[in-house]
From TrEMBL, chains A, B:
<keyword id="KW-0805">Transcription regulation</keyword>
<dbReference type="InterPro" id="IPR036390">
    <property type="entry name" value="WH_DNA-bd_sf"/>
</dbReference>
<dbReference type="InterPro" id="IPR036388">
    <property type="entry name" value="WH-like_DNA-bd_sf"/>
</dbReference>
<dbReference type="GO" id="GO:0003677">
    <property type="term" value="F:DNA binding"/>
</dbReference>
<dbReference type="GO" id="GO:0003700">
    <property type="term" value="F:DNA-binding transcription factor activity"/>
</dbReference>
<dbReference type="InterPro" id="IPR039422">
    <property type="entry name" value="MarR/SlyA-like"/>
</dbReference>
<keyword id="KW-0238">DNA-binding</keyword>
<dbReference type="Pfam" id="PF22381">
    <property type="entry name" value="Staph_reg_Sar_Rot"/>
</dbReference>
<protein>
    <submittedName>
        <fullName>MarR family transcriptional regulator</fullName>
    </submittedName>
</protein>
<feature type="domain" description="HTH marR-type">
    <location>
        <begin position="8"/>
        <end position="138"/>
    </location>
</feature>
<dbReference type="GO" id="GO:0006950">
    <property type="term" value="P:response to stress"/>
</dbReference>
<dbReference type="GO" id="GO:0005737">
    <property type="term" value="C:cytoplasm"/>
</dbReference>
<dbReference type="InterPro" id="IPR055166">
    <property type="entry name" value="Transc_reg_Sar_Rot_HTH"/>
</dbReference>
<dbReference type="InterPro" id="IPR000835">
    <property type="entry name" value="HTH_MarR-typ"/>
</dbReference>
<keyword id="KW-0963">Cytoplasm</keyword>
<keyword id="KW-0804">Transcription</keyword>
Length: 159, 159
DNA sequence: GATAATTATATTGTGCACAATATAAACGAT
DNA sequence: ATCGTTTATATTGTGCACAATATAATTATC
């Protein structure tokens, strides 16, 4: 078992660097549409099904309200979405696609292929890598909730 | 070729979500050491070789000065590193490990194993995944510099 | 049906990321 | 030596992420 790992041997760093690289590759494409990468993800969720609560969007993207609330307000200012508080439960804010947000669906259709092309991988390889990363994420998230290594004096300070 | 991809089929999202999940899993461990994940990465670089210029750190982590300058100042305030402007070339700021930063090397030794454990993968699988992701990053970065899809009206506005 | 507990969103504050720009030092060619 | 170019860092401004907390509405319990 190696003690002193090189930076490049750290899986955490590879994934962190890869995520930023993809985001940077997408940026010029998304700039043309006037949106950022997290905003694009929100649109992906809304394109699946035109209406979602903020909570549902957060669960889907694993983002909390501190991130989503201002992001969605910026998207409303750009008239991509509408924010409406539910009459039946006034705690819930319903996010729905505005016409401009619908239109972007067509214009953004080419975006996923940008990664496919530049990845130099075929669809089978991409699907396989995707499955591996999703499995890793799932395990990491459950390890996080177990708080494996931090039973002693971390979160438990609160008590 | 599928037109309408589900969010979970997007490799970009899987990697983005995985990166944040790992960062969140590390957070309680890093909190104990009083550092953040990007600060941990800077320390990994310095632990390899005690001294680096900001430029070298930036090249290693693929982060620019707008990110590193304030981050390194926070690390200096915490007495983890020292910042010294070179006498021989006063443009260059040399970053070196302070005693507190050296000490953390021991305390942080368990961190990489946290991901290994929670990943549920063996070393061979991790190395293989790591290589695939590094290869993807490399290709994405070179695609980005070619500006594949954006020859017309994006960056070329500058001209 | 008042009160406690839960739920959904919002707010605040800190720390990245990164584009765009500024500044200042070093270097190169004349 | 001087001027233009390059190089290294810093600054500014915007937009995430996320912890911690607040607020307000709903639901559950008695």
């Amino acid at each position: 078992m190696k003690e002193y790992l090189n930076l490049q041997d750290h899986l955490c760093f590879s994934i962190y660097a890869c995520s930023r690289a993809i985001s940077r590759m997408y940026r010029p494409l998304l700039n043309k549409l006037g949106i950022t990468y997290p905003q694009y993800l929100v649109l992906l969720v809304l394109w699946e099904k035109g209406e979602r609560s903020i909570k549902e969007i957060g669960e889907r993207l694993d983002l909390d309200s501190g991130t989503l609330t201002p992001l969605l307000k910026r998207m409303e200012e750009k008239q991509l979405i509408q924010r409406t508080r539910l009459k039946t439960d006034e705690r819930v804010v319903k996010i729905s696609l505005a016409p401009k947000g619908e239109v972007l669906h067509e214009e953004a259709a080419c975006i996923p292929s940008a990664l496919v092309e530049s990845s130099g991988m075929n669809i089978e390889e991409i699907v396989e890598l995707n499955e591996k990363i999703k499995a890793l994420t799932k395990r990491v998230l459950s390890a996080e909730s177990h708080n494996y290594f931090t039973k002693q004096d971390d979160d438990s300070i609160i008590e």
